[in-house]
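Closing statement on the nicotinamide-adenine-dinucleotide sub-project.
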Amino acid sequence: MKHKKILVTGGAGFIGSHLVDELIKLGNDVTVIDDLSTGKLKNLNKKAKFIKLNLGSASAPKVLRPILKNVSYVFHLATIPRIQHCNEHPVECHSANVNGTLNLLSACVKNKQIKKFILASTCMVYGNPAHLTISEDAQNNPQTMYGAQKCMQEIYVNIFTKLYGLPSVVLRYFGVYGTKRHSETGSYPNVAAAFSRDKKTKNKIFIYGDGKQSRDMVHVFDIVRATIMAMNSEFYGGEVFNIGTGKPVTVNEIAKYYNCPIEHQDARPHDIRRCTADTKKTKKLLHWEPRISFDQGIRGYLEEQSL
Ligand SMILES: NC(=O)c1ccc[n+]([C@@H]2O[C@H](COP(=O)([O-])OP(=O)(O)OC[C@H]3O[C@@H](n4cnc5c(N)ncnc54)[C@H](O)[C@@H]3O)[C@@H](O)[C@H]2O)c1
């Protein structure tokens, strides 16, 4: 596993920065591409080579070519992951999320030495599933621009694998939480980050609707482990894996950990009622299971922020 040349897009973001830390710890040579639209330089591991680039920009294809020379593995996390923002600015977000992915994939297929392209996708591609747990073969039914754009990323990865033989794996992360959660100011519907922000700034937290909506919350360290396991796995044909715990936790249950006043507000139209991962395929084929329980993870997260 030592000294692989790896590219991580979105490596200054929440999940990407943790992934970069771990890849560097394992002895790899990591380059990060990020446009710092939601990411921050302070998140970035100093040992990573950093290139500031908007993957959706017109200059991206030309800039990408030399960067990808000799790269063996590409982790694609760069995305604007903000539900409300993507709904309000679909064209701008399409450019970053979809054109950016297309530019990257096109550059990757010109570099035959690439051993695997790993896409960070999301459970938001499923929309509002009819069943409590959802397996990878359920029909995609996104309810938001962000969900639709993540579906497009998946479709492009799949087609590049089928048409041009680009080895790939797709990981559908569920609700990710944990340290360095800088996107507390965005509108990604991660309740843990939003509750932390509101407790710090308003000394109360806001629950939209009845709070009985559930989430499948995965600690970022477990996400990073799954992502690296996908790189090392025997899968190359665009296989899709749910990366979740399979254990739903309601927004009301999460709120209890914050131990502060709660204000109820109207339910948001785009809010997903429930979405829990069916983890059978991931356990059986990727041999991954989360190690950090929600209770343990959220307590550590709150302690770190002195909340
Ligand atoms: N956080 C979650 O709960 C969650 C859940 C499911 C899937 N995901 C996926 O995981 C990935 C990382 O999410 P995150 O939570 O770390 O978000 P984040 O906003 O912290 O990280 C995304 C990074 O991508 C960069 N970026 C965005 N558009 C770019 C562009 N056009 N060119 C270059 N860089 C660009 C941002 O500056 C940022 O550093 C995303 O692909 C997201 O869809 C996240």
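The radius of gyration is 18 Å. With this model delivered, the sub-project is considered complete and its resources will be redirected to Aim 3.
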